[in-house]
Structures are given as C-alpha cells and as structure tokens.
C-alpha cells in the first residue's frame, strides 16, 4: 500500500519544485508510473480476505479495482486539463494539479482504509479539493450554487453517519473492518435502531446519488472543469457505493425491510433521470443525468445484498467510471472548440472530426451497455438479482435499459450526425493528446472484457 | 389657541421655510417611526429572501444591466434584423431554453437606429430573385404577424400596413430594364403590373406623365408599415421566449488565432471569437461574454465591428486586407404637407430621377426624399437635416412629377443612416472566411427593414440547420466580395 501512497504524497514536491516548463510532462509521467505500480495490486496472492495490509491500510477484492481506477484516473485528468489550464499563471497551474493530487491521496486512503472512521474522514476530506476545483475553476456563475449544493448535500448526509459510527463503536467496541465482520450480531429491534440504520447509509446514498437526493450531481458535474467532472463521475460517486458495501455487512437483519423504499427510489430514478436525459439541451448535463441513472442501478444492486448484486455493482461501477469519464472528456473537447455546451450548436461533428466520431460512437455504445463490454455484464447481474428479489422490477429495469439506449443514441445523433452548422466547419483539429486520452480510457474497458475476475469482488 | 389651530391647518399656513412646527412634529415623528420600521422590516425580509440558496445575491455589488457571462449566440445590434434573428433562433430551438441568445444594443433610445428612421416601405419590385423572394416571404410574415408574434395577455400587433403598392416610373432609356425586371418578378411570383403612360394617367390622374415610358405597379404585398411596431413586436415576442437583452456597446473581442494556409500559398490568421466585450453605457466597465456564435447585425456600424476583428487591417494584397464594405450613409426624409395632394390610393411613387414620395397618414402629409449623387454624400458625423437639399434637388423633380406639389410646405424632416454596402448595395449574409464563427446579416442599403423577417429566418437556418431551407441566400455570401463579383440591382432607391 505504501508503495503507492508515498509516491502519491511525493507528487506534491514534484508539482511545486519542478520548473514550469516541465510541469505537465513530469506530473503526467509521475502519475502514470504510480498508476502502473498500482496495477500490481491486481495480483491476488493473499489467502485471507485482505492483502497488502499495514496498520491502517489494506486492500481487498472490493477496494482493489476502485483503487486501481483512482490511480489510473490521475494521469488522465492531468492530460485532459492541460489545454484549459495552460493560459493561467504557473503557480495557479501548480495549485490545480495539487488539488487533483490531494484528491488522489485522500481517495487512496479512503479506499484502502481498514478503520471505518478513517474511511469517514477521508470521505469528508475529498469534499474540499473538489469544492475548490468546482468553485474556483468552473466556467459559469452558476458554479457557486453548484458548489453549495454539492457541499451541503453531502455534509447533511454525512453528519448522521458520524453519529452512527460513534454509536457503532460504542456497541461493538471496534470500527476496524477486519474485526467488525466477526462481531456479535447486534440486537436491532427498536425504532432508534432503524434511524441508526438510515444514518449509516444516507451519506452514501446521497453520494451515489440516489434519485431523491441527486440534485447536486447535475449542477456539480456541469459546472466543474473537465478534471473535476472526471473525478466526480469516475471515483467520487463510487465512494458512496463502496461505503455502502462496507457498512451493510453490519446492518443485517434490519435491511430486509428497510431497503424497500430505497430500492424503489433507485429503480424509479433510473427511469426518471433517463427520461430527463432525452430532454437535455446541455451536453454535460445529459452525461451527468446518465450517471445518476447508472448509479441508480448500482444502488439497487448493493441494497439487494446478494453476491450477484455486489458483483454486478462493482463491475458496473468500474465500467461506468471509465466510460462516463470518457464521455466528459469528449464533451470537453467539443466545449473547448465551440465554447458552448449546447448540443444544438455543435452538430454534424462526424464530418469534421471522423476519428473523434469513432470515440463518441464507442463511448455511447459502452454507455448503453453493449455486450461484451463490462457495462452490460454489471447491468445484467444487477437486473437478474433484482428480478430474483421481485419479478416486477424487470419492468422498471427493462424500461430503464431501453431509455438508456434511447438517450445514448440521441446524444450520438445530436452531436455527430445531422447537418453541420457553418460555424463548426473550421474548428481546430484534435490533438494527439486528446486521442491518447480517449484511448487510455477505452483500453482498460476492453481489456476488462477479457479478464473480469479482476473486478468481480470477493463473491467469486 | 386659535393661532395654533390656524397653524395646524395647511391651507391657512403661510408659506415658510421647510421646518417642522412643534404641534405636528410628534405625530409626524410617530408616522415616520412607523414608516421607518416598515422600511426596515421590508429591507430585512428582502435581504433574507436574497440570501436563501438558489438566488443570485452576492456580497459583491453587481452593476445592473450587465449581460450574462455566457451566451450561446450573441447578436450585435438590436435593430429589426437583430431581433428578427433572435426571434427565429428561439423559434427553431427544439426544446425550451435550448439556446441562450443575447441581443446587445448600444442605444436604448434607438435615436440613431436605421430601423426606426426608415420610411417603412416594402416592395417586391427588385431585379434580383433573392431580393424578391426575401420581400415576398417577409410580406407573408407581416400579413400574418399575429400568428407569429403573439404574446399571451398582450395586445395584438398592429403594423398599420398600408397595402398601397409601389409605383416605379421608367424613362425611355430604362424601360427595357423595367420590362426585364417585370419578367423576373412575375417569374418569382410577385404580383406586379406594367402600365403604359395612358393607363397610368387613367389610374392616377394626378401624375404628370411627361417623359414616362413605362410604369410598374405592385398589386399585392407592397406598401408601407410602421417600423417601430415591427421592432417592438419582434422584441416583445423574443423576450417572452427567453432572449436576453443588454444595453451596451461591443468594444472588442477576445479571440483565439490560428494560422491557415490558403490556396495560393499565403498564410492568413483565422480568428475564432471566444469572448465579446460588452461595455456598459456611461461606464468603463465591460463584461466579457463567452459565446459560441456571434451575429453582426449592427447595421450602419457593422464595418466598425468588423474592423475590431482585424478585417481589412491586413496587407493590401491578402484576403485580410479587404475591408468589410458596409459603411453608414446619411439619407434625408422630408415630411411635407399639401392639402391638394394625391388621395388615399397614392402608391409609394419612385420616379426615374430618384425622388420618392408616399402618403403619410390621412391628413394630407407626405414623406418624400431622394438619394443624393455618389459625389455629394452628406456628412455622416451627425443626423442633421439639410433643408437646402430639399429646396435645390428634391422639390424640382417632385413638382415636375406631381403638379399638385408645387404648393407645399415642409413640416419637418429627419435623417437616418443606410447600412450602405459600398460593394454592390445588396445584403451580405453569411460567414466571414477569416472569422469562422461570426455571421453577418447587414449591408442591406435601405431594404433591411422590409427583408428583416425573412433574413432572420435565413440566418437562423444557417446557424442551426447548416444551410438555407426557405429562401436560398447563397448569392449574398461574403465570397462575392473576395472574388470581386458584385451582384447589382438594376434599381435602387
């Protein structure tokens, strides 16, 4: 664990001490080498449930894919931000990359935490760099309201979590994930325990986000600069899923009845947010709502508490993280050229940027869960487990899949096909950096088709 | 006691310096206290309401009237062409708020705007097919204006459209041009009739037909209307559809430059506009508006806007050395009163000498004027009217053509600018090769108002659909300026 964490912390001196000419090259190389080192975690050599464990940090089959995703994402974020941050003064550029690196550090410590309080502290700590990125580097005046929504929704959810954790500490005597799974099952019979159950999970449901408390997500995603959108979509939403998976181990048997309303909200959210996508005019807003839709499925899978549900959830989280981040990068390339996120103004791009049209095509296909990509595998497993729980859910999840295909097609046709307005005919061409960015997003997704064991989690 | 009573009655109180008298001061102090308290409560409530999330209160004082920081389409110029484009853009967005359109207008009083200083005529008697189609489409729009520009709970639009038609007179020398134009117009679908001098005399006995070989009268869709009503109708409807309006002056652009190599090996700078700097009136403060597309509908000031982007400032032989050929030209309009003048059926008469005359209202007033010679263009630094021009140039031709006008009185007059296209006096619609996201819709040289609804639709189609659908304006594209192929009208006013 330290072999990745220490180089990540050493990113800070790298950022601040490297001469300005070499800033982007060195940070990209440094973070890429961290990512490559982190791939070593994927080799599962441990006999017990946990590996590479230190005193406070360890990895296990649930956190390993998320950790690798986090480490993989940092060079991609730096690659994506290069163009729009370049005009700023050097110290501000360094500050921006510092915020990204600090997010990386907190996330590694969050996913690797073995103590739930440490996870909680890192969970909260990730809010601060994200808030600064959104409000300082966002492009429109609405970024202030976006930052407020983002911060206070998450905080309002996580303060009950703190209380719930302290209560858990009181009753079980420990909060280490290694130990608590073997603790005595608690007597959870009173109304207070039900509220405690909700307190444990609300923070993560807000973060996922669940449909009723999802309002912060479109605002935050749209107003954030590209790196902020990437990290939000790819990793920060998965913090919620990961937290839920860890916490629900201790929350039986209350879960059997109490998950009911949340699963309904999640399933309804898939359809509602999918339908909202069909009416969006802003490209990033469409991708943000599609994130909510996919995360609704993940939330359903986790709340169901079955092995298939968990595996499906992790697979969908990883696949969605990569694909959604890729879509945000593509939207950003269009935004940097036309300076507008409105879809109606940047149409017919296929004739102008053919290779990018290919990236758009594959990203949209992945988003609508085309086999054999892992998006489909995760979705299928979640849909199956929900069907097992209640056959009626197939109506909602099936309709959700249909609507997902509809809005992905809509996004592709609106941006790539159709008559190109005259003002996009002379847009500056794509850089190799941008093509590299898309390829680096897509290659893990395709490779994971060949070896999904890496992200199945501990259920297999 | 009586004195106090007297003093307390306002009618009896002698006018004195404003100071409070003892008697009523306590009651007034009470009232003031209550009013103050009310005012304070109101202020508190407003402050609390403003501080709730979701409002746009900020601790920094914002200038009122600032444009938004970002807009998808910025239309420079709030005349009838600009607002027409804004309306059609909003009409063609598929979903509500699909497009954020901002119209920037320098002068809220429209004191020098060509739109409101126009005579308001509309005709199809052009020689270019595109001009005829534009005017026909616009006339159709204007006749059904309340189907297009209605706003809930507001009065219907009344353009005061007088369908009296235009009457062009041709001498022996130009009769063949008029016949050719007549054929073009009929082919395009305009309802025009040719009249011989005797038919002309029969129909309009007040005309002196000396020297007239042929006359062409528009039978339908021609006449004049109130330009101010049209402008306000477009504006009201566009703003009800969500178009942002800002009163400010565009003083510059922030662009990103790329170097491109053109066909003959030269290198030119291609600029893409990223921000439009809008300066607030009477202030140095400006707001950079981030935008994807800019439309130059600034009329007489279009040339100035183009110069801000460096068009025309490059080396003389290259494409960037060709300036944008629109400049303001002053034209006078005189209001004359003649009690014995032609009656209600007076068309908009245009003589071959260049003088024009139309009826204004029902009280025997007429609008008249004439285009000056190329060499005698009036000074464009102000909008002062030159009365001598009427006395020396206009009256002679006017009285010659309409004998009743030998006795008339000039009641008033005004001057307005044509956005004069020095290249070929026809509209310029399209993209500039050096600035790939600035659309031009200007240079109409006196027929912008009558073509504005159709031009607005055409530009909206260009921006959103990538090509013309209703009226094909490819002939008005800017490339004719660079290829030096003017498309000239055979008759202009």
TrEMBL record, chain A:
Q: What class of enzyme is it?
A: translocase
Q: In the Enzyme Commission scheme, what number(s) does this protein have? A: 7.1.1.2
Superkingdom is: Eukaryota
Q: What is its main location?
A: mitochondrion
Checking InterPro entries in the record gives: NADH4_N (IPR000260), NADH_Q_OxRdtase_chainM/4 (IPR010227), NADH_UbQ_OxRdtase (IPR003918), ND/Mrp_TM (IPR001750)
PANTHER family, A to Z: NADH-UBIQUINONE OXIDOREDUCTASE CHAIN 4
Q: What is this protein called?
A: NADH-ubiquinone oxidoreductase chain 4
Q: Which organism does this record belong to?
A: Leuciscus waleckii waleckii
């Amino acid at each position: 664990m330290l072999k990745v964490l220490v180089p990540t912390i050493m990113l800070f001196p790298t950022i601040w001490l490297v001469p300005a000419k070499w800033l982007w090259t060195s940070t990209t190389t440094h973070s890429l080498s961290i990512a490559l080192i982190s791939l070593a975690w994927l080799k599962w050599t441990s006999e017990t449930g946990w590996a590479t464990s230190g005193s406070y940090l360890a990895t296990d089959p649930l956190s390993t894919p998320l950790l690798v995703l986090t480490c993989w994402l940092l060079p991609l974020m730096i690659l994506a931000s290069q163009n729009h941050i370049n005009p700023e003064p050097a110290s501000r550029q360094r500050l921006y990359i510092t915020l990204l690196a600090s997010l990386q550090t907190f996330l590694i410590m969050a996913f690797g935490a073995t103590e739930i309080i440490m996870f909680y502290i890192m969970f909260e700590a990730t809010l601060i760099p994200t808030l600064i990125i959104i409000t300082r580097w966002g492009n429109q005046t609405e970024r202030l309201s976006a930052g407020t929504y983002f911060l206070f929704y998450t905080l309002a959810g996580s303060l009950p979590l703190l209380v719930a954790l302290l209560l858990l500490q009181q009753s079980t005597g420990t909060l280490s994930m290694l130990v608590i799974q073997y603790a005595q099952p608690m007597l959870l019979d009173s109304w207070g325990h039900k509220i405690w159950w909700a307190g444990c999970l609300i923070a993560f449901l807000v973060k996922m986000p669940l449909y009723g408390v999802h309002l912060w997500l479109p605002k935050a995603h749209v107003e954030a600069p590209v790196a902020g959108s990437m990290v939000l979509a790819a990793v920060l939403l998965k913090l919620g899923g990961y937290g839920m998976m860890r916490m629900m181990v201790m929350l039986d048997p209350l879960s059997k009845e109490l998950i009911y309303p949340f699963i309904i909200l999640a399933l309804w959210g898939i359809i509602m947010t999918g339908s909202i996508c069909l009416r969006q005019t802003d490209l990033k807003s469409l991708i943000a709502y599609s994130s909510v839709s996919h995360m609704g499925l993940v939330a359903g899978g986790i709340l169901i508490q079955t092995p298939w549900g968990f595996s499906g959830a992790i697979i969908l989280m990883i696949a969605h993280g990569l694909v959604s981040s890729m879509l945000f990068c593509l939207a950003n390339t269009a935004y940097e050229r036309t300076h507008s996120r409105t879809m109606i103004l940047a149409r017919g791009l296929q004739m102008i940027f053919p290779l990018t049209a290919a990236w758009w095509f594959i990203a949209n296909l992945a988003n609508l869960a085309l086999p054999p990509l892992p998006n489909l595998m995760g979705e299928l497993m979640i849909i199956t487990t929900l069907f097992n729980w209640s056959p009626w859910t197939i109506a909602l999840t099936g309709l959700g899949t249909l609507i997902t295909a509809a809005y992905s097609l809509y996004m592709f046709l609106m941006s790539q096909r159709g008559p190109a307005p005259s003002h996009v005919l002379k847009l500056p061409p794509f850089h190799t950096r941008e093509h590299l960015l898309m390829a680096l997003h897509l290659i893990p997704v395709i490779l994971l088709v060949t070896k999904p064991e890496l992200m199945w989690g501990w259920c297999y | 006691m009586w004195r106090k009573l007297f003093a307390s009655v306002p009618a009896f109180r002698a006018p004195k310096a404003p100071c409070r008298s003892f008697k009523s001061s306590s009651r007034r102090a009470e009232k003031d206290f209550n009013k103050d308290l009310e005012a304070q409560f109101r202020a508190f409530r407003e402050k609390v309401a403003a501080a709730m999330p979701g409002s746009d209160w900020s601790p920094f004082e914002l200038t009122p009237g600032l444009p938004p920081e970002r807009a998808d389409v910025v239309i420079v110029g709030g005349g009838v062409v600009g607002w027409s484009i804004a309306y059609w853009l909003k009409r063609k967005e598929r979903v509500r708020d699909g497009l954020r359109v901002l119209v920037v207008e320098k002068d809220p009083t429209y004191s020098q705007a060509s739109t409101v200083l126009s005579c308001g005529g509309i005709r199809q008697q052009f020689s270019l097919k595109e001009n005829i189609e534009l005017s026909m489409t616009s006339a159709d729009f204007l006749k059904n204006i309340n189907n297009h520009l209605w706003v809930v709970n507001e009065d219907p639009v009344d353009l005061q459209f007088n369908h009296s038609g235009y009457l062009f007179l041709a001498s022996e020398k130009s009769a063949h041009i008029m016949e050719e134009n007549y054929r073009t117009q009929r082919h395009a679908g305009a309802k025009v009739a040719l009249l011989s001098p005797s038919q002309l005399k029969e129909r309009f006995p007040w005309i002196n037909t000396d020297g007239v070989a042929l006359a062409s009268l528009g039978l339908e869709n021609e006449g004049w209307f109130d330009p101010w009503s049209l402008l306000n109708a477009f504006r009201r409807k566009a703003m009800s559809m969500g178009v942002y309006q800002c009163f400010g002056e565009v003083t510059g652009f922030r662009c990103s430059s790329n170097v491109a190599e053109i066909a003959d090996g030269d290198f030119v700078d291609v600029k893409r506009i990223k921000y439009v700097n809008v300066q607030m009136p009477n202030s140095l403060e400006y707001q950079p508006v981030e935008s994807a597309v800019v439309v130059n509908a600034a009329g007489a000031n279009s040339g100035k806007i183009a110069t801000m982007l460096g068009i025309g400032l490059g080396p003389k032989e290259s494409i960037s050395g060709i300036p944008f050929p629109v400049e303001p030209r002053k034209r006078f309009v005189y209001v004359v009163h003649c009690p014995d003048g032609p009656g209600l059926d007076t068309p908009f008469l245009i003589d071959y000498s260049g003088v024009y005359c139309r009826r204004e209202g029902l009280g025997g007033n007429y609008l008249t004027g004439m285009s000056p010679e190329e060499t005698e263009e009036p000074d464009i630094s102000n909008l002062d009217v030159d009365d001598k021009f009427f006395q020396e140039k206009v009256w002679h031709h006017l009285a010659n053509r309409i004998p009743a006008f030998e006795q008339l009185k000039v009641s008033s007059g005004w001057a307005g600018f044509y956005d004069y296209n020095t290249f070929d006096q026809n509209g310029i619609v399209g993209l500039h090769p050096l600035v790939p996201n600035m659309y031009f819709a200007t240079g109409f040289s006196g027929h912008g108002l009558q073509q504005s609804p159709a031009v607005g639709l055409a530009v909206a189609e260009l921006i959103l659909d990538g090509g013309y659908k209703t009226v094909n304006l490819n002939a008005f594209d800017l490339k004719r300026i660079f290829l030096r192929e003017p498309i000239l009208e055979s008759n202009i006013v």
